[in-house]
Amino acid sequence: MAILKVARIGHPVVRETARPVPAAEIQGAAFQRLVDDMVETMHEYDGVGLAAPQIHVGWRLAVIEILPTDERAEDGVPVTVLVNPKLTPLGKRRARGIEGCLSVPGFRGVVARHERVKLEALDRHGKPWSVEAHGFFARVIQHECDHLDGRVYLDRMEGLRSLAYQEEFDRFGAQEAVDDEE
Ligand code: NI
C-alpha cells in the first residue's frame, strides 16, 4: 500500500469531471490496489472521505470512513467504497454544517447540504449497493460526489464570510450560523 499525493485546488484535475470506472477494470489488481491506497491516504490525512480526482485519477470513485468517535456524526461508518455513485436528494430540507477538504488544506467553511440523500453505487468488487443517509454521512457523501464533478465545498458556500483557517476556527468557532443537526 502507498500514501498518494493529494491534488490541491489550482491543479486542473480537481476541476475536471471524472469518468465512470469501466466494469472491466474493477476486478483488476491495479484497481484494488488503488482503492487500498486511497483508504491509506485518507487515514494518513485524517480525512472522512477521499475522491479519486484528489489523487490525480479521473474516475468516479471515492472512499468514506467516519469513526464512531467522530463528534460530528451520530454513528460511525466503516470504510465504504463508492464506484460510479448516483446521488438523489430526499426531501427539500437542508442543513448547514462545517466542511473542510484535503484539496483545500488548512481551511474550514459553512456549507448548506441536503439533509437526506439516497446513494446508489457499486462496491469495490462491482456489486451494486445503496443507502439512505442523513446528517453528517449525507454531508460527506455529497462532498465526495461533488469532487467527481469537479466541485469543491467552496463552490457550495453561500458566501465566503464563514471561511476560516483551521487554527482560527478552533479558537473562535464558526463565524456563521450552523444548524444544530447532529
Ligand atoms: Ni474534499
Structural class by helix and strand composition: alpha+beta
CATH superfamily: Peptide deformylase
Low-confidence stretches: none
Integer tally of domains? 1
Order of helices and strands: HHEEEEEEEHHEH
Q: What is the topology, as strand order, of the major beta sheet?
A: 1-2-3-6-7
The residue-averaged pLDDT reads 96
- What spatial form do the alpha-carbon principal axes imply? globular
CATH topology: Peptide Deformylase
Percent of sequence in beta strands: 25-35%
Return the CATH architecture: Alpha-Beta Complex
The total strand number stands at 8
How many helical stretches? 5
- Percent helix, as a range, is 10-25%
Protein model, in words:
This protein has 182 residues and is α+β, with helices and mostly antiparallel strands. The chain has a single domain (12-181), classed as Alpha-Beta Complex (Peptide Deformylase), CATH 3.90.45.10. It is 25% helix and 29% strand. It contains 5 helices and 8 strands. The chain has helices at residues 23-26, 29-44, 135-148, 153-156, 166-172; strands at residues 49-51, 61-66, 77-89, 94-99, 107-114, 116-122, 128-134, 164-165. The chain has a 5-stranded antiparallel sheet with strand order 1-2-3-6-7, sandwiched between helices. Strands 4-5-8 form a 3-stranded antiparallel sheet. A hairpin with a 5-residue loop joins strand 6 and strand 7 (128-134). The longest helix has 16 residues, at 29-44. The protein is globular, with a radius of gyration of 16 Å. The structure holds nickel (II) ion. Nickel (II) ion (NI) binds at residues 101-103, 143, 147. Nickel (II) ion (NI) binds next to helix 3.
